[in-house]
């Protein structure tokens, strides 16, 4: 044992390595023994901090959603109109594939498994809160006359789910950048919501100020 994870950050280091392994191999393909070997610690130390593999996955879920909720709140606070707020959230959903890739892929690979958690679990509560932010933006846009009336409950779930399979096909450094894919997601989503499409080029622009602002928020 070399003690690389023996300092105050050992709990975070365990979660980071576990997250990367889940992103690369999935939950079923990830083992405590491989995480421990990479960190140079005993499996017992992982058990000491997290107990079970399921609890470590739960910690991954909570860590991921806490960060996404915090960023969503900052995006909504930064932009002044519902169309800009929703565009910011949509761009962020794709930018995570680059700027927080391991956690995003790990979360998306196991989203169906995470959906089986107890209703009162913190992970599910955070997911409901995030979807509530989306719903609030939609409702504000309808109230302001920016958006066509829609079922905000269904639409917010559709928006949340839209990016959850991106890990299966999006490749960082591939033909299309995260900014370009985000632009298409904005075009698809806001194109069907906006009462007037005159602002859509600004909202979808992959090289525009809105995207640059979102990048600053999620990389702060």
TrEMBL record:
InterPro entries recorded: Homeodomain-like_sf (IPR009057), HTH-type_TetR-like_transc_reg (IPR050109), HTH_TetR (IPR001647), KstR2_TetR_C (IPR041490), Tet_transcr_reg_TetR-rel_C_sf (IPR036271)
Signal peptide (UniProt feature, chain positions): none
Residue ranges: DNA binding: 31-50
PANTHER family given in the database record: HTH-TYPE TRANSCRIPTIONAL REGULATOR RUTR (PTHR30055), HTH-TYPE TRANSCRIPTIONAL REPRESSOR KSTR2 (PTHR30055:SF175)
Annotated keywords: DNA-binding, Repressor, Transcription, Transcription regulation
Keyword Transcription regulation applies: yes
Keyword hit for Transcription: yes
Coiled coil: none
Membrane-crossing segments per the record: none
Name of the protein described by the UniProt record: TetR family transcriptional regulator
């Amino acid at each position: 044992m070399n003690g690389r994870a023996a300092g105050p950050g050992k709990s975070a280091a365990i979660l980071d390595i576990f997250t990367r392994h889940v992103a690369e191999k999935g939950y079923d393909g990830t083992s405590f023994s491989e995480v421990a070997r990479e960190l140079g610690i005993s499996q017992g130390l992982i058990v000491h901090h997290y107990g079970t593999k399921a609890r470590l996955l739960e910690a991954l879920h909570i860590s991921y959603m806490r960060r996404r909720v915090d960023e969503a709140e900052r995006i909504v606070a930064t932009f002044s109109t519902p169309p800009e707020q929703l565009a910011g959230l949509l761009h962020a959903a794709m930018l995570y594939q680059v700027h927080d890739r391991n956690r995003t892929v790990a979360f998306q690979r196991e989203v169906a498994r995470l959906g089986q958690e107890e209703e009162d679990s913190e992970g599910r509560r955070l997911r409901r809160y995030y979807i509530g932010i989306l719903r609030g933006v939609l409702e504000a846009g309808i109230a302001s006359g920016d958006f066509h009336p829609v079922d905000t409950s269904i639409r917010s779930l559709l928006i949340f789910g839209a990016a959850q399979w991106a890990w299966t096909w999006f490749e960082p450094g591939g033909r299309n950048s995260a900014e370009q894919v985000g632009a298409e997601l904005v075009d698809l989503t806001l194109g069907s919501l906006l009462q007037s499409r005159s602002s859509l080029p600004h909202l979808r622009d992959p090289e525009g100020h809105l995207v640059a602002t979102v990048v600053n928020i999620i990389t702060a």
